[in-house]
Amino acid sequence: MTYDAATPVRELWELFEARTWEAAGRRLADDFVCEWPQTGERFCGRDNFLAMNQAHPAPNWHIVVRRLIASGTQAAAEVIVTTDEAVDVCLGFYEVRDGQISHGVEYWTEHANQPTPSWRAEWTERMV
Amino acid sequence: MTYDAATPVRELWELFEARTWEAAGRRLADDFVCEWPQTGERFCGRDNFLAMNQAHPAPNWHIVVRRLIASGTQAAAEVIVTTDEAVDVCLGFYEVRDGQISHGVEYWTEHANQPTPSWRAEWTERMV
């Protein structure tokens, strides 16, 4: 059977969406580490990462995995997290070991629909 | 020969770094489209995308492709763009057709080293 790094990543996000935290945790290695380079934060251990996600203050969040690309032990995901206030996006790069996610690097941003900066306005158009 | 979507994506960024714009352009399809969901911008056509990149005002930028994951016609990249002022990051998801990149979705953010928000401070530590 071909090893598929996409599976635990997809399941992790889907089980977060279902708020089934124990099942989500089984997709993470005990010693899972997740890095958030934007803020310089590192979550060490499955339990810390799950506790943080359970405590997330965003109101009424819902998750859709939009893109998932996997090769060997690596996977990359574009995940849309819609809340009552915003459309957030997680860009995640993961390592999978023995069917569980052992390492993650996650970047968070949002759809802000800001105006186009003037320096590039002549080459761009608005998305529909 | 196995088709490798990683190659034109890696080369595009490396040729941007080398400021060899014409060679970089050969990695893009004529009708290449790139979407920037954060600002709702869309660059239509290779020429617009190249012109915008050539005009980018960031001072003294340098590019390193940190991660690149490809499968079939898709590739995802984590690209570090260091300037005199900041460490920017591009998270890009690409489609490749006939050896050229036909579509991109790029998110841009930066390493800000912000303080940890209080709601999650008990589960995280600082990256070294």
Characterization of this structure:
Two copies of one chain form a homodimer. Chain A has a six-stranded mixed sheet, with helices on one face. With 128 residues, chain A is of the alpha+beta class. Helices cover 20% and strands 44% of the residues of chain A. In chain A, a hairpin with a 2-residue loop joins β5 (87-97) and β6 (100-110). The first copy, chain A, has three helices and seven strands. The mean pLDDT of chain A is 93. β2 (41-44) of chain A pairs antiparallel with β7 of chain B, so a sheet runs across the interface.
How are the SSEs ordered, and which strands pair?
2 copies of one chain form a homodimer.
Chain A: H1 6-17, H2 21-25, E1 28-36, E2 41-44, H3 46-54, E3 62-71, E4 74-82, E5 87-97, E6 100-110, E7 125-126
Parallel strand pairs in A: 1-6
Antiparallel strand pairs in A: 1-2, 3-4, 4-5, 5-6
